[in-house]
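In this supplementary section we document a worked example of the pipeline. Step one takes a protein sequence of length 147 as its only input; no multiple sequence alignment statistics are reported here. Step two produces a three-dimensional model, which step three serialises into structure tokens for compact storage. The input and output of this example are shown verbatim.
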Amino acid sequence: MLTEGMDMQAYPSVVSLSSRFGDMDADACVSDTALARYVEQARSQMITEVMQECGIDLRKGPLGILVAHVKIEVASHRPPDSEVFLASGVSAIGRSSVHLRVGVFSGGACLAVADNVLVLIARETGRPVSIPSLLAGKLQLCKCRQR
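The serialised model returned by step three reads:
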């Protein structure tokens, strides 16, 4: 998996964050907790933006997102630069699920790659629902580029 996610150019969405002192562990490297927060930030920002473009309000509407699986692989344990880049994109789309890949980059190096499985659910029942065609089309435009 890591070889697939280590090129920041493969991701359609890249945002930057300022690194913080609290993101470091006792060795002054980016902590595992900070990496998990970075992945969460990229994942929630990307899916929220795409859903809003489709007129779907995840906070109040009938649809919700269930985070079914997150796998983070650390690629480099190093001190952060002043800026951290969060890259994200869609790696696969299922009937009711979307797989997002997130890469965390700093100082020109990939720090971690995460695969996330999100399931679209009906709030009323808590059961998976099919991804609406408009949303599926928007997600298709957010696919990671293959090598």
